[in-house]
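pasting for the record
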Amino acid sequence: MKKIRYFIVSTIVLCMIFALTIVTYAADPYLSFGSKTGNVNVKKYADKYNDTWYGLTSQTYNSSTGYTTKFTIKVNARTISEDATNFNNFAKSTVTHEFGHVFWLCDNPNTSKSSIMKYSRNRNSMTAPQTFDVDNVNAKYD
């Protein structure tokens, strides 16, 4: 089972902290989340990419331990600016969605329940993981 080593605070709190960091365009493009057992290297980038995506996540994990060792989230300010009616919420929704991938949540789950991972969500208003998302993260780490 793949685990994330620093799963110390609630999913919602961690996602919102990370989302706010992206939206405020912190001067330092590198973050490091620590835990009692080590660090996870995090890179975040907010830029105007020529691609069509809103956000993109890549991650590396140690195959022997299953722990995530590094992840990168890119946020495309160009596509968000073009499509958002509420830029800050849209950006938070995008980052929270991308952060869901770090917790092994898949895109566009086949459910009638509300989910930050759904493509059909209203990115201008949904900015936090929903009950369905939190339940799935908890199930993966039980």
